[in-house]
Amino acid sequence: MKEQYEYIEKQFRDELNREEGLHKKAQIYFSIASLVLTALLFKLKDIESILSDLPNSCMPKVFLIISIVFIFSSLFFIGWSIKIHNYKRPSNLKTLRSEARERISTEKFYSHRIIDFKKAMEKNIPVNDSRALKLKISLILLLTGYLSSLIFIITIIL
């Protein structure tokens, strides 16, 4: 029974590590998106004057708008993935106290904790899967926004 407990506890800990990794990844994506968007918005007056000097080509304007839209969309998905989630923890303090008062057997204790870990994992895995998907979408949007801003800069230079 103890081996089963250790196995399921390790799986639960792995899922907690995944949760932490997703949060760190979201922070990195948020920082990158903020930097790119800040750079674009900070230079908006310069960009506006460059665009007014260009002939009536709408291509740079289109790429500028696309860049900003994709980066804002990326920030939206990052924020959505960062929001507070309802994670389940494996044990309830009241239950542990009552089991301590009842002096249940070690085997029963391990059995109850295995069930607690399984229930927690059943709730946490879909939450982490959803967060991972949102972060994947935000990365695609961020890369697309970054690429379109590079194309915007290239079309201005050429």
Summarize the structure.
By secondary structure, the protein is mostly helical. It has helices at about 1-40, 45-55, 60-80, 95-100, 105-155.
Please provide a written account of the structure.
With 158 residues, this protein is mainly alpha-helical. The protein has a domain at 25-86 and 117-157. The protein is 87% helix and 0% strand. It is built from five helices and no strands. The longest helix has 52 residues, at 106-157. 18% of the residues are buried.
The averaged pLDDT comes out at 85
Overall 3D form: rod-shaped
Largest sheet: none
How many strands appear in the DSSP assignment?
A: 0
The first-to-last residue Cα distance is: 70 Å
Work out the radius of gyration. Answer: 25 Å
Q: Oligomeric state of the chains?
A: single chain
**What percentage of amino acids are in beta strands?**
under 5%
Helix content: over 70%
Q: Would you spell out the secondary-structure blueprint of this structure?
A:
Blueprint: H1 2-42, H2 44-53, H3 59-82, H4 93-102, H5 106-157
Give a quick set of tags describing it.
158 residues, 5 helices
